[in-house]
Specification:
mainly alpha, two-stranded antiparallel sheet, globular
Length: 373
């Protein structure tokens, strides 16, 4: 029975993470198409997170019913900052970068988010780097390889490889949209930095408000309001905000329901079964899925520079995760620190999922349970 139970648990975790990467791939491809066809970015962010909030609400009311936590000004401040830094700013910059580059190129940068977080944590002395240990050496080499892969992707173009030839209108539109790779790269770097700041903000938020579903739902609602205000300031035309029965509406529902709400629940379940480092091992699948899908469905060429950069990033990411895992096994388990920030958030975002997930440690303080009447 023990072997059967373990096998079932393993297959459940694998299938869950495969679904997460498939959802991420679909979101990247759909978002790329509608953005180059003129969808207003802040309208997409606002509508998407309304859908996400609606989808997460039943989980908040069911799983966290009977748990009370007063929403003081401090909590509202951190929820506001969480939405501003991690969604309105980070996702806005990512979408601008995605529009100016390609889905494969953008996902390459998302895999760098854990590296950015690690680097900032070391610089700010929130995480110790002990180069006397093999695990720390491997982790550092992995980070260097990831940065080298990103530079290779950005600087070196190389020969183009076409998987299929397509004359479809979508392919023509996407080709015409590639106007500024440099600007797109700067947007993507800014997005990575914003996500890094987001993970640090979540350390504080988890301490003052450790209700994962309520935190996710409220963050989505606040982010929608923020995106709406920013969007109206940039473009208040009715046509910009109108929704029709087209690919834009499908992308909004898909992104909110699957790429945010469902992804959050799947990742949280996998972490509960296999631990926080397990989901990160599947991140590179999204990169591979997106590259293949973009080449086949959109007729996008795969450049040699992107392939080389992809290989370096994959090797570097696995090395980094292996070193991090070994380091975690050797160290005592303290309370959440900024250097050990919400692993599942890094998992989700570095895979290009944008799951607005708040993962609570096993011992969450300051939560009062009340009797259910």
């Amino acid at each position: 029975m023990g072997i059967v139970k373990e096998l079932f648990s393993w297959s459940q975790a694998v299938m869950s993470m495969l679904l997460v990467q498939i959802f991420a791939t679909g979101m990247q491809i759909l978002s790329r198409i509608i953005l180059v066809e003129g969808t207003f970015i802040f309208a997409l962010i606002a509508y998407r997170h309304v859908v996400a909030a609606v989808c997460v609400a039943p989980f908040a009311f069911y799983f966290e019913r009977g748990i009370t936590k007063k929403l003081g000004w401090s909590i509202w401040f951190w929820l506001f900052l969480n939405a501003l830094v991690g969604i309105t700013l980070a996702m806005g910059l990512f979408y601008y970068g995605l529009r100016d580059t390609s889905a494969t190129y953008s996902v390459n940068f998302l895999n760098l988010v854990p590296i950015f977080t690690f680097t900032i944590s070391v610089i700010c002395r929130m995480e110790r780097l002990c180069l006397q240990r093999w695990s720390s050496k491997v982790k550092t080499v992995g980070a260097i390889l990831c940065v080298g892969g990103a530079l290779t992707t950005s600087i070196y173009k190389g020969k183009e490889f076409h998987v299929v030839q397509s004359n479809h209108h979508t392919h023509s539109t996407i080709e015409a949209s590639k106007t500024n790779m440099l600007r797109g790269t700067l947007f993507l770097v800014g997005s990575c930095l914003s996500y890094t700041a987001w993970f640090i903000v979540q350390v504080k938020l988890l301490k003052v408000f450790p209700l994962k579903y309520w935190g996710t739902m409220l963050t989505c609602i606040i982010a929608s309001i923020q995106a709406t205000i920013v969007g109206i300031c940039l473009d208040c035309r009715k046509v910009t905000w109108s929704l029709k029965w087209n690919l834009q509406l499908i992308t909004i529902i898909y992104s909110g329901a699957l790429a945010t709400a469902a992804t959050f629940c799947l990742i949280y379940r996998v972490i509960a079964i296999k631990g926080p480092t397990y989901p990160a091992m599947f991140n590179p699948l999204a990169l591979i899925f997106v590259a293949i899908s973009e080449a086949i469905l959109l007729g996008e060429p795969i450049r040699l520079g992107i392939l080389l950069g992809m290989v370096l990033i994959l090797i570097g990411l696995y090395s980094f995760l292996w070193g991090k895992r070994k380091e975690t096994q050797c160290l005592p388990q303290p309370n959440i620190e900024a250097g050990q920030v919400s692993t599942s958030m890094v998992v989700a975002e570095s895979a290009g999922v944008h799951a607005t997930a708040l993962v609570v440690p096993s011992s969450s303080p300051n939560v009062e349970k009340t009797d259910r009447n």
